[in-house]
From TrEMBL:
<dbReference type="InterPro" id="IPR003831">
    <property type="entry name" value="DUF211"/>
</dbReference>
<protein>
    <recommendedName>
        <fullName>DUF211 domain-containing protein</fullName>
    </recommendedName>
</protein>
<dbReference type="Pfam" id="PF02680">
    <property type="entry name" value="DUF211"/>
</dbReference>
<dbReference type="InterPro" id="IPR023129">
    <property type="entry name" value="MTH889-like_dom_sf"/>
</dbReference>
Length: 97
């Protein structure tokens, strides 16, 4: 299966790993060509992030294993694109595109 895009909800401790350490680990996963890590929530001990990755034949099990081995927790898989990238059409008022 050719996984082309993955969006994950991931929590990490504030102290470790740093975002740079997390990025360095993810960059080593087979098939990952580019990614964004967006911080969307913080509390006293944890940082919630959304990680969006794109590539060709992303090693999903290896990706999850890498994220967990560095000390983060994957809460959910929020988007998975297989094959050709398909963007959702956004509807405007009145049903127009």
């Amino acid at each position: 299966m050719n996984i082309r895009r993955v969006v994950l909800d991931v929590d990490k401790a504030l102290a470790r790993p740093s975002l740079l350490e997390l990025a360095e680990a993810i960059a080593q996963v087979r098939g990952v060509e580019g990614f964004n890590i967006t911080v969307n929530e913080m509390d006293l001990e944890t940082m919630g992030t959304e990680i969006t990755l794109e590539g060709d034949e992303i090693d999903y099990p290896g990706l999850i294993r890498t994220i967990e081995q560095i000390g983060c927790v994957v809460h959910s898989l929020d988007q998975l694109v297989v094959g050709r990238l398909v963007e959702r059409a956004l509807l405007r008022r009145g049903g127009e595109r």
